[in-house]
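Re-run with default settings, no changes from the original entry. Doing this only to confirm the output is reproducible before filing.
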Amino acid sequence: MEVEHQAYDMEKISNYINGALKEPISGKYLDNYNPAKGEVYSQIPDSGPEDVEKAANAATAAFDKWATTPVAERSSIMLKIADLIDENIENLALAESIDNGKPLSLAQLVDIPRASSNFRFFATAILHFSSEAHISDQDAINYTLRRPIGAVGCISPWNLPLYLFTWKICPALAAGNCVVAKPSEITPMTAFLLSKLCMEAGLPPGVLNIVHGLGNKVGQAIVEHKDIKAISFTGGTETGKRIAAVAAPMFKKLSLELGGKNPNIVFNDCDFEEALSTSMRSSFSNQGQICLCGSRIFIQNDLYDRFKKGMVEKTKALKIGDPLTNGTQIGAIVSEDHMNKVLSYIDLAKKEGGSIIAGGNRIQITGLNGYFIEPTIIEGLPYHCRTNQEEIFGPVITLIPFENEEEVIEMANSTPYGLSATVWTENLKRAHRVAALLESGIVWVNCWLFRDLRTPFGGMKQSGVGREGGLEALRFFTEAKNVCIKQ
């Protein structure tokens, strides 16, 4: 069964400011491309600092009332939004697939359900959010108040558009903050549709404001705005560096979830079939455009040839095609620019001496003119080469043999990144030992992307600053004030 790509043909997206849909002050719009077809299918506001100013003013004006709204009432509104997301799952999933190029089935099963889960989790977590109290030698009692910050900025990426957009705004709203948010200009549609659902749910004006546009205009204006007191950003490491440079002198709270070059370590004693099938998912899900994908697969020597054979066979069997067609496993790369970046890294790998043992090419899909790349496996590269050190963020993995724990830990930790890692072994002592030594904010043992929303999420080194998720997110979006009372 196929779904029509023209479902949102040439619609004009609006900003969402002070509870209403607004045109950009400039009156200008940007083209928004359907990556599976390589064609413009809608337009988004080309907003600027003036639009951000209106959004920040609305957030600031709404803050006192929202911050003092009873927690149960804030929770109820957020739960209503979650219900509306569930009621509109087919429409939202279709929009996500058309906008991003991901298989419709992935949007239906993961992206949109996770967005409603984010609303539900934080809507209920805030009901149980508690703080500390300490008795000081019977002479005094200390207790800590945690209060919302004010107007905060949330800037999200294009790879999991609504999923990661809600991952940021939900804890901010639950904690009592008002938000100025910027979705990626490459994948803006579901954030726009969320605007309408927030209006339907009765979210008060100014509590959430969504400004569409380019990073160097809208994103920069959010980061620089004097009344926006915290920034939560997910995206590239270089952009994160620029945000940190602006935010630091302004003493803004900062949460950065940045790039990754994640190791997937396969020991001889692994459950072979489980490791193989899950490694396929962790390599190529969402066309490899997930910050947690395991792009470097380290395989212990005795297992290397068998595992490589299995990966190559399964990779060549993946169905690449129209994201809206049932059975498609690999959809389109999100944009032409990003496709060209990924292809340039495949060329680089060849120059560095790598052998392409599966994929490696741009392909054409009948009836489409989009941005499709074959899932690609490369071997024969040293662990310290550029291909194995720099984030590609596409359907490209490398295979690297190793002898022992000491060697693989050195290679795994060699990159400037430290977001996630996966370890496959049936030896529990080894699992604990290796997990403790890996420089990663998240380590999965015998699984991948098994997420519990209560756990801290984030990276080390150039993979980020701070942690998201659970109580960590609620703590980030609040200020702690200690009160000491002498008895």
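The longest strand covers residues 140-148. The mean pLDDT is 96.
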